[in-house]
Amino acid sequence: MKPELKKDVMYRCIGTDFTNGILACGFMTKPIKEQSQYNFLIDYYSCFILLSGSGFYYTTDNRKIPIDVGDCVQRIPGGVRHSTEVFPDGNWLEFFISFGRSTYDYLCSLNLLPIDTPVRRVKYDDSLMHRFTRLFEQLKIAEDTELPYLSLKAQEIVLSTLQPIQKSSSSNSLKELMEQGCLLLSSDINTTISLEEVAVTLNMSYENFRKQFRKFSGTSPAQYRIKQKMKHAKLMLLSGISIKETAELVGYSDTYSFTKQFTKTVGISPGRYKQEEQ
Fold first, then answer.
1. pLDDT over 90 (residue 126)
2. Residue 164 included in any domain
């Protein structure tokens, strides 16, 4: 998918604390060198993937790292200065994702965010572009109550995108297919997803997909999907979202069905979970 060189960004905030509540993403063009950023400081986490164009990233010790299409640049909060130089050929287009400082601190505390290098080569393809576009379109129209869910989705995209690229082999190819299956089953939690369509997306028969997925993850695709819904539900409940709103945000048409599934999967009711964990 060839990206269109068009600026289109969206900034939202969960609550009133911008540093901790920011949730933003979009497509940013930088056609001239004057749009380079030198010694740039940021209070929250942000990263971008270069979709078109080229440039350089300067480290704090003034090392010059080339940036090309498919490179992801992380901007770490907390007094770290960032310098990004645009090659002025009019082709620079990036997709960026930003979320709050407290979210960044939490992900780092779990060693989930690889911040060992500011520039990282990632797997950039049509599937990733689709996920970027889907997140951006959802953020533009989301109600405020839906922002915590989209924050989780933004984190998921960042974390999965920053995973290192592995050399291909027959076993790795199957592993990559199953990892892609996990991503598909973890996305768009508020919608109904067809497991047969997931198998088709991976160019597999449904029976083979189900067999290989169970071998890879230890559970069936359907159960994996439910567990992902409940994982998001737990985070939403802890963030203060009501049981009724949480049920809707993870794709249940009524509170009763959600409560029944949550209790079966987690072992306690949503109401009791909120009381015991807060």
1. no
2. no
